[in-house]
Amino acid sequence: MRILTHDQLHRTAPAIFAQEPDAAVSERYGFVPTINVVDALQAEGWYPVRAQQTNVRAPERQATTRHMIRFRQDPDRQVAVGDSVTELVLTNSHDRTAAFQLDLGLFRLVCLNGMVTPVGDVGGVRVRHGCHVVDEILEGSIQLSHQVPRIAEGVEAFQSTLINQSEARLFAEAALSLRYGDDWQQASPVQPGALLEARRTEDANGSLWSVFNRTQENLFKGGLRGRAASGRRTRTRAINSVTEDVRLNRALWTLTERFAELKGVDLAA
């Protein structure tokens, strides 16, 4: 595990170190620099290991745009969930586009690709900007940590649930709909089968967990050969947007839970 220093965080996502919000925010906005929350989580044993921020064209927005930091505990405290380890995923902005949001995540070691798992009915912990942000985030981190056993049970259920090729294709079609919208057949440059291609032998099986991971990795890493609506040859783009990263990760996890339930798995047990 490589812990990111302040310098590394600043190079990757300078908005973490904003000293004031965007000029357009209300006077009632309670400004707390994201780095204060990062340092508080690190003091509690959650270390920043990955960071990114949304690319914006206007230079003045670079310091306040939406950003994301992923945290992991030291190896002696890490909780393994199948072939993954648990993470906390913090997102925020200082330009009125997002409150502080803390989610439970999984980092799959075999493909080095993070996923975000919804927790409960509302999913994660959302904290409005204000003077108590740090305390509320720390409290939220404890609440989310308590949900790890439930997530682990879900992963075990996905690993033991087999689906046939027709069901896998339906999963991929639903994933393309989540990515490109209801008109994905026109908007997507690739067909469902492309999402089901295994990039490694470990994923070349018929479990729901494997289908989920193949689909997620192919969507997020991009590079799939296809054709645009004009007929031009193209490749799918990797997902680099903070907003889309969290949104699509959460949606894919929920989709996987629904498929498991349709196969008769009781995830509430």
How would you describe this protein?
With 269 residues, the protein is α+β, with helices and mostly antiparallel strands. It folds into 2 domains: 6-147, no CATH class; 161-262, no CATH class. 38% of the residues lie in helices and 18% in strands. It is built from 9 helices and 9 strands. Helix 5 (165-180) runs parallel beside helix 8 and helix 8 (208-221) runs antiparallel to helix 9 (242-262). The longest helix is centred in the last third of the chain and has 21 residues, at 242-262. The mean pLDDT is 88.
How would you describe this structure in keywords?
269 residues; alpha+beta; seven-stranded antiparallel beta sheet; two-stranded antiparallel sheet; 38% helix; 18% strand
Fold topology:
Elements: H1 6-12, H2 34-43, E1 46-53, E2 67-73, E3 80-81, E4 84-92, E5 100-108, E6 113-117, E7 125-127, H3 133-145, H4 148-160, H5 165-180, H6 184-187, H7 192-195, H8 208-221, E8 225-227, E9 233-235, H9 242-262
Antiparallel strand pairs: 1-2, 2-4, 3-4, 4-5, 5-6, 5-7, 8-9
Helix pairs in contact: 2-3, 5-8, 5-9, 8-9
The major pleated sheet works out as:
7 strands, antiparallel
- Counting helices, strands and paired strands, the structural category is alpha+beta
What is the CA-based Rg, rounded?
19 Å
Q: Give the % helix.
A: 25-40%
List unreliable stretches of 5+ residues.
none
